[in-house]
Design goal:
Number of helices: 0
Structural class: mainly beta
Shape: globular
Distance between the termini: 40 Å
Number of strands: 11
Largest sheet: 7 strands, mixed
Order of helices and strands: EEEEEEEEEEE
Length: 122
């Protein structure tokens, strides 16, 4: 079993930056692709971006391109979501997930963290 714990959320001003971390324990994190999703109140969970097992390939939702960067450090069993130029509409709970292959689909991931709140003020 794999446990994932997100951290790094908080309150930031529009235009600011945050870096979220996702620390994995249990199975070797490098065996899994990882994805980032977000969910605002009353809305469905949406794809943010994903990265393959080695960190060689990434994929982003349109709203994240040019602003968000996903990376990973397999020696630390940790993934990262660097967010810049944040907007109020980025406000949501952000989740990391692990699965056999990166995907935009929630159901393709096997393990999920409990989320970290990101709030962007105007």
């Amino acid at each position: 079993q794999v446990q994932l714990v997100e951290s790094g959320g908080g309150l930031v001003q529009a235009g600011g930056s945050l870096r979220l971390s996702c620390v994995a324990s249990g199975r070797t994190y490098s065996s899994y692709a990882m994805g980032w999703f977000r969910q605002a109140p009353g809305k469905e969970r949406e794809f943010v971006g994903a990265i393959d097992r080695s960190g060689d390939s990434t994929y982003y939702a349109d709203f994240a391109k040019g602003r968000f960067t996903i990376s990973r450090d397999n020696t630390k069993n940790t993934g990262y979501l660097q967010m810049t130029s944040l907007k109020p509409e980025d406000t949501a709970v952000y989740y990391c997930a692990a699965g056999p292959m990166y995907s935009t689909t929630v159901s393709r991931y096997l393990y999920w963290g409990r989320g970290t709140q990101v709030t962007v003020s105007s």
